[in-house]
């Protein structure tokens, strides 16, 4: 099994659930390596957004509160940083702030940018997994180290019944290396 193939299989699995919607930059049009994993997702399930990460994370929370399962795609951790207020103060805390009255299950897909064969510089290769684990009280964060980690992580994120959101962290270099 290959890392990329497992990502593709996982996106197809998520797309089979009528509650899912895939949103972000380069989801309905090519532009990132992640785009290639969505090529068989029905076009009506792809919501292309402008570069407005805080808005995207706010939309993610709103859609989750409305009963959808948004798959919110931020191709790099560095881009997701722009949506941290919505992620930390809203998506992560909605259950706590409402004393369990509201659940907002979302899947946030992000990545550690590839460095090979070309290093894109430091604004594209950040890994903020451990920092986010310290800031989030309800969101689970899963880093995908090996191809065999991929499908179970996305399956868990979709099928979990505790109403928690999941951030899944991919490695860009592994798309072609593992």
TrEMBL record:
Q: Which InterPro entries match?
A: THDP-binding, Transketolase-like_Pyr-bd
The record lists the membrane-crossing segments as none
Please provide an example of a Pfam family that matches this protein in its UniProt record. Transket_pyr
Q: Which Gene3D superfamilies match?
A: 3.40.50.970
Stretches assigned to coiled coil: none
Query: Which domain of life does the protein's organism represent?
Result: Bacteria
| SUPFAM superfamilies, alphabetized | Thiamin diphosphate-binding fold (THDP-binding)
Domain (Transketolase-like pyrimidine-binding): give its ranges: 1-177
Output this protein's name: Transketolase-like pyrimidine-binding domain-containing protein
């Amino acid at each position: 099994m290959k890392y990329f193939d497992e990502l593709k299989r996982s996106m197809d699995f998520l797309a089979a659930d009528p509650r899912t919607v895939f949103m972000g930059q380069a989801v309905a049009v090519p532009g990132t390596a992640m785009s290639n994993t969505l090529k068989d997702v029905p076009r009506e399930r792809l919501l292309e957004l402008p570069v407005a990460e805080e808005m995207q994370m706010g939309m993610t929370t709103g859609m989750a509160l409305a009963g959808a399962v948004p798959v919110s795609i931020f191709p790099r951790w560095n881009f997701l940083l722009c949506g941290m207020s919505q992620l930390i103060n809203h998506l992560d805390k909605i259950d706590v702030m409402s004393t369990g009255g509201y659940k907002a299950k979302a899947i946030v897909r992000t990545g550690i940018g590839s460095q090979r064969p070309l290093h894109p510089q430091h604004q594209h290769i950040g890994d903020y997994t451990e920092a986010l684990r310290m800031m989030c009280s309800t969101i689970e964060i899963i880093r995908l180290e090996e191809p065999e980690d991929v499908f179970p992580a996305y399956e868990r994120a979709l099928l979990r019944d505790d109403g928690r959101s999941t951030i899944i962290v991919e490695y860009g270099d592994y798309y072609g290396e593992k």
